[in-house]
Amino acid sequence: MTPLEDAAVEDADAEDPDGEDLTVADALAQAVAGVADEALAEWLAELRRDPGPSCAELGVESLRRSSQARAAARPRGPDLARVQDVTIDDVLKGRLYRTNPEPRPLVLFTHGGGFVLGDLNSHDRVCRRLAARCDVAVLAVDYRRAPEFPEPAAVDDAVRAFGWALSHQDELGGDPRLGIALAGDSSGAAIAALAAIRLRDGDGPGASALLLVNPNTDMTLSQPSMDQEGQGWGLDADDMRWFVEQWVPDPSRRADPKVSPLFATLDGLPPTLVATAEHDPLRDEGEEFALGLMTSGVTFEHCRLRGMVHGFMSLDDVSPAAARAGDDVLGRFAGLLPRSSDL
To answer: What ranges make up the beta strands (E) of 145-240?
Structure first.
């Protein structure tokens, strides 16, 4: 594994040599030892000072209102040649991002948010960066969310959007010779992976490439990092368990490969980039998935982001190190995508 970022923050003691209480600076240093930069450290320290109610206590509607408010306050991201809301197959909402009027590889993006949160606005900045950094057309999908629509609704929507995009590549700015890639972060990465598996097993074309950032691949949430990194790093294990309960209400189904791609047969998947973060409770399940790709003979790349946390792709406006890490991941993904020059 080759880290894209290396932490440069040393551990701090709990109190000074005279036994005095921690200063604010000392407390910050202790709280964020191992984080990639000071800006991310300050962001985490603030979360730890006031973590607020759990997701279960807040409930779906309150969480969605907060998510929408954060999206509205976030800077827009790179200007592109064209950003347009579209209707997918007369049913689903989508948003198209184009960097150039000439055909480019097309990437279908499914957003994160614990299967419960997120929409076209929450990841608008991420999609703009994906389009600009990789020089691709991006089609973001506003899939149905839990708990109103538990699994497999989101995967059904991703597969439906992929099929629709296949027959509309010219108007979407894609190059039909290059196919369509899939990308997602967190729960959106789970949806992208499950869609890629279903497309592989179907009668039509499969995905041309796959990008999985901070992927949630194991709905049993039983990997060691869930406990090791599951408190105080931006995504708490208890909140993650609540999210999974909304999407897969029946505990007996959570190890089913139809909802947990970690347990699926991975042979025949397209070239895949898996990006994990050092301080993410989902780290180990993402890395186990990368190991599964390797043992299945799939062309893949895995990188662990040193000093990073879950959701770093959406923290580029908070932390310069997170911005660099995201750019590096997108640059690597650009290298996996088929190009017209390869034909």
So the answer is: 180-185, 210-213
